[in-house]
Amino acid sequence: MDIRKFIRSFGYAAEGLITAMREQNIRFHYTSAAVVWLVGFFTGLSVMEWMILILVMALVIGAELFNTAIERVVDLASPEIHPLAKQAKDIAAGAVLVFAIASVIIGMLIFLPKWF
Ligand SMILES: Nc1ncnc2c1ncn2[C@@H]1O[C@H](COP(=O)(O)OP(=O)(O)OP(=O)(O)O)[C@@H](O)[C@H]1O
């Protein structure tokens, strides 16, 4: 196994995360995740609840990163307006929405009984 190549690919992945930070939606998800961490810290959560929250946040951010990657590829492949380009972008955005809605519901199920 080529360790240097392996470490280099981590660098490329980090570069991707930094590049994606230019997207307003990604910044929104990063900020939301930070807020949830803070609220979770002050609310007091069990290990299982933390595990669920971390998984949910990673899924939403991961989905948004895939969405951003798909947007880039579509822009590259179809800089002109095309119905398939629209479908690809809107479906990818829809996938993020599904994860985001699920994450809000899971967050409410975890936090609301502790607050009220
Ligand atoms: N090449 C294209 N052909 C057809 N529709 C497109 C194309 N690019 C974007 N759209 C559509 O235009 C609408 C608005 O897109 P939006 O403002 O989010 O821009 P974007 O290119 O998708 O994203 P971003 O601004 O983050 O690059 C969406 O429904 C999107 O699918």
Automatic annotation (TrEMBL):
Mn(2+), Zn(2+), Cd(2+) and Co(2+) support activity to lesser extents. One of its GO terms (biological process) is phospholipid biosynthetic process. GO terms for molecular function: ATP binding; kinase activity; metal ion binding. Keywords: ATP-binding, Cell membrane, Kinase, Lipid biosynthesis, Lipid metabolism, Magnesium, Membrane, Metal-binding, Nucleotide-binding, Phospholipid biosynthesis, Phospholipid metabolism, Transferase, Transmembrane, Transmembrane helix. ATP binds at residues 12, 23, 71, 80-82, 89-90. It is found in: Cell membrane. GO terms for cellular component: plasma membrane. The active site is at 64 (proton acceptor). Substrate binds at residue 64. The keyword Kinase applies. It is a multi-pass membrane protein. Its main location: membrane. The chain crosses the membrane at residues 91-112. It holds the Pfam family DAGK_prokar. Its cofactor is Mg(2+). A divalent metal cation binds at residues 23, 71. Belongs to the bacterial diacylglycerol kinase family. This is UDP kinase. It comes from Lysinibacillus odysseyi 34hs-1 = NBRC 100172.
